[in-house]
Amino acid sequence: MMPSMPLFLLLLSLMGAQAINDLRTAAAMAAGLCKTRPTDLVFIIDSSRSVRPSEFEQVKVFLAKVIEGLDVGPNATRVGVVNYASRVKNEVSLKTHRSKPALVKAVTKIEPLSTGTMTGLAIQFAQNVAFSEIEGARTKSPDISRVAIIVTDGRPQDNVRDVAQRAREAGIEIFAIGVGRVDMNTLKQMASDPLDDHVDYVESYSVIEKLTKKFQEALCVSDLCATGDHDCEQVCISTPGSYKCACKDGFTLRDDGRTCSACSNAATDVVFVIDGSKSVRPENFELVKKWINQIIDKLDVSDAKTHVGLVQYSSSVREEFPLGRYNNKKDLKDAVKKMAYMERGTMTGQALNFMVENSFGRSRPGVAKVGIVFTDGRSQDYIGDAAKKAKDNGYKMYAVGVGNAVENELKEIASEPTADHYFYTADFKTMNQIAKKLQINFCDEEKPCECDSLVKFQKKVESALQALTKKYILFD
Prior knowledge:
By secondary structure, the protein is an alpha/beta fold. The protein folds into 3 domains: about 35-220, von Willebrand factor, type A domain (Rossmann fold, 3-Layer(aba) Sandwich); about 225-260, Laminin (Ribbon), CATH 2.10.25; about 265-475, von Willebrand factor, type A domain (Rossmann fold). Helix content is about 35%, strand content about 20%. It has helices at about 5-15, 15-30, 55-70, 100-110, 120-130, 160-170, 185-190, 195-200, 210-220, 225, 280-295, 330-335, 350-360, 385-390, 405-415, 430-435, 455-475, and strands at about 35, 40-45, 75-85, 90, 145-150, 170-180, 200, 220, 235-240, 240-245, 250-255, 260, 270-275, 305-315, 315-320, 370-375, 395-400, 420-425. Strands 4-3-2-5-6-7 form a 6-stranded mixed beta sheet, sandwiched between helices. Helix 3 runs antiparallel to helix 4. The protein is rod-shaped.
């Protein structure tokens, strides 16, 4: 039985980041979403006389299976094979085979040398020759890994400590696999840190294949775009071990590197008009503030672009801060968090009139003006005149209703087409979820965007609400 979600999350937090990454890697491999990062990989295989011909065949099968799990190609993983005993032979160069079938076929043709065990000599050869650009290695780069996997079953007849250290210092990551009566201290002298990840032991060559998955995973990097482990709003582009965000045609990437703006040159004045009446209740008012800040996160706030003002109303109207006072998201969000709950009546008409006469009365000339009105109940005064004046002045008005909000009042506040400019939900708890789904991009009315125009506010909301409704029906 699967653990409950809270318990599962607790287990992940206790396991730590590396364990979570391991789980992601395993899941990605299972789903076929795993790629090998660009790597120059060289196998260094012991074929000394202690390795019987049948055992050497098993080593080759192991190599072939690891190769099958790699993303082989000139711009992905290049594979070489160094065969050693008392002498060293470069069986497969990094430049020789650029496809899996050709590579596997070359591996099957390797014959054992059947002499001594000069492991140190083999490591030095790999560093100086196999990993050289002449043999196909790429120029050193942080985006390209250099990896050596050593397979040996004996004690080396030469020094490995110093030569392995020089190889590691040259940027080669070394994995050491020991078989049978191998000297474990020698493996540790060769391998990179942490040793637990880079030293492996098997009792015999007959079970070496069980390490196949380990090395496929070690060389695997999850495609974070495919697995969904990213926060790009529109387009995710995979990069080695990571990702970067981009936008669809007609949109530009914002400074946060993840969200997109439909109108990069548009200047907009946005005023939130927020119901602080007693029916909202303190705990829900905190949810409203979080909702406002989630929307602010999606706006292009700066001195030259989006300015934000905030008005709270109940039996009276209070301007929390005017347009242009804060020109960065941090200061804006801090000011929203500090807003105190008024907790009285619901004079929505008075609040709308304040927005028209005061908030937008001090706004920048020639920029788009947007009002976002939130209410949870019926207005105690007449809203018609102020709502009409706002729209007649060219303001784009959105109406957001929760709980006991009246649909006809929302429609009266909202701009045309009405269906695109108002929405309603019964539960305050869904507001933050809705804000995550919304992308409110505002274009200058005098200089319309040559994109897909304004994002359809209501359609986004309806989609989010349908998903949330299903969620609450299923899990309530």
